[in-house]
Amino acid sequence: MFLVRTRLHIHHRNACRALLSRHYVQPTHTALAASATPVEKILLDTIKANGPVSFATYMQLCLSHPTEGYYMNPANPVIGARGDFITSPEISQVFGELLGIWLVSQYLNTGVEQNIQLVELGPGRGTLMDDILRTLSQLPHSRSSIKHVHLVESSLALRAIQEKKLEAWRGKSGLELHWHDSIEDVPAADGVYTMLVAHEFFDALPFHLIEKTHQGWKEVLITSSSDPAAKTILRPSDDSTPPQFSNSPLTTPSHDRSPSQTRFRPVLATEPSPVSTLLGASSPRFSSLPIGARIEVSAASFRIARKLGELISQGAGGSALIIDYGTNHAVGNSFRAFKDHALADPFDSPGHADLTANVDFAYLAEALAGTATTHGPLSQRSFLLQMGINTRVAALQRAAALPERGVALGKAAARLVDGTGMGKEYRVMGVTGAVGEGTEGVWPFVAGEVQDAATEKSH
Ligand code: SAH
Predict the structure, then answer these.
(1) How many helices (H) and strands (E) does the chain have?
(2) Ligand 1 proximity of 89 Cβ (cutoff 6 Å)
(3) Where is the composition biased (Polar residues) (predicted)?
(4) Does residue 100 line the site of ligand 1, with CB under 6 A?
């Protein structure tokens, strides 16, 4: 039977018990692969030459090495039914449609007709942008105002897929498509309103793992399993499993497993470093954590969120939606890998599996403070229900040519709002720029969480 699953479904053991009983596949504890992957060789050489690497370097090389990184290598199927994981826009068109409607409603709040630019961070297969463009092109208020689409995408392989998906939009109302390596390259022009989406983007960004000790924050690094020198300069972090500071019922973090199963193992640095010290001080929330706390902190996420806030506050203003799995606090054990729709050891086959870590939404909000206003986060379930997913699905079902299509539409939408799965674990944060926006009353964030039987049962 073909196995379809999202990246989030696998790790929430308790919350998703029903799903897991059908779909859960144990992480593979295979014997050490005979030959190392190209990224594995690069990592082992780097460790040999320079010593242990950070989790950030590990993640960066595994996902974004120019030719061998997971997202960069066209041989990796990545997203979709035939890929390693499936995402909300690939499940239902309604997802992108409702995101588009939220963005248009923020634009209408400005009360002034402006040119619009659309920006997406990490557009994957281009499906979400295609659905948003279709929605906006059907609304008289935005139809002729969209001039530019900016796609921030590091992978040339995925850019080619996005271009194929979106090229039909070229030329319509003079619409131009642009690709960028970084959000820094997206222009903010006078008189242009920016609509931005980032879906399952921040979870793919590199993070540093730091641990609070009596000497200050120290970084947990990655060394090779066979590194004989490591014990003399670094304490293996497996010596003392620190308490976890998450209310998420995550699976046992795979990087705390026996080191013999992969070529890598974590080690705690003997001294605080400038990086660990800076990151430990980067949020006032971290100062109240007890000794032994380990947290995943993404400096890249902070920088990009800050830039996002600046972008939607310049020109004629703007609005953004950030959707990802995560919590409103930091966690220390969410690093995981996905391969063939199953959870895998993040130290197994580097470069051949997707890597991900939960998003700390409070950290993003801290990065955005001062430049933009954040709303929520709300659960995806609450956001989509209050944006009218049921009404939209009913309309599509009425228009469906075949009854089976109607059933499929209903099932796909139900999956997005499932109170024990995607609907609960994914969060949606709204961001509105400083220009022309009120600070309160942004629907549906102002309405709060939808409380119903399904949601309550899962608490
Ligand atoms: N938003 C899509 C894809 C999610 S996968 C969806 O929901 O289906 C993550 C996406 O972010 C991929 O397109 C990946 O290539 C891109 N990506 C990851 N790290 C990136 C970075 N540092 N800069 C730009 N794009 C990045």
Answers:
(1) 17, 17
(2) yes
(3) 239-263
(4) no
CB 90 within 8 A of CB 131: no
Ligand 1 pocket, residue 124 CB under 6 Å: yes
Q: Are residues 427 and 309 in the same domain?
A: yes
pLDDT higher than 80, residue 237:
no
Higher pLDDT, 146 or 435: 146
pLDDT reading at 228 higher than 80: no
- Which position has the higher pLDDT, 235 or 428? 428
Question: Is there a domain that residue 272 lies in?
Answer: yes
The answer to whether residues 151 and 123 touch, using CB atoms and an 8 Å cutoff, is: yes
Q: Is the CB of 201 under 6 A from ligand 1?
A: yes
Give the range of the structural domain holding residue 43, as residue numbers without chain letter: 8-82+205-299
What are 326-367's pLDDT values in tens digits? 999 999 999 999 888 889 999 998 999 999 999 999 999 999
Look at residue 348 and tell me if it is in a domain: no
Same domain as 327, residue 426 = yes
Total domain count, the chain: 2
Residue 229 clears pLDDT 60, i.e. is over it:
no
CA distances to 91, 250, 314, 331 from 244, rounded to whole Å, are 33, 10, 40, 7
DSSP E strands in 190-341: the ranges are 192-199, 208-213, 216-224, 235-236, 264-268, 294-297, 318-327, 336-339
Residue in 63, 155, 355 to alter for ligand 1 test, most ligand atoms within 8 A of Cβ: 155
The last residue of one of the domains, among 299, 316, 339, is 299
Q: Does pLDDT of 7 surpass 70? A: no
Hey, whose CA ends up nearest to atom 13 of ligand 1? 124
DSSP string for 334-381: --EEEETTEEE-TTSSTTSSEEE--EEHHHHHHHHTTTEEEEEEEEHH
Ligand 1 pocket check: which of 8, 99, 154, 298 to mutate, most ligand atoms within 8 Å of Cβ? 154
Can you give the pLDDT at residue 227? 54
Same domain for 241 and 273, yes or no, is yes
- Ligand 1 centroid from CA 89, angstroms: 13
Give per-residue pLDDT as tens, 147-172: 899 999 999 999 999 999 999 999 78
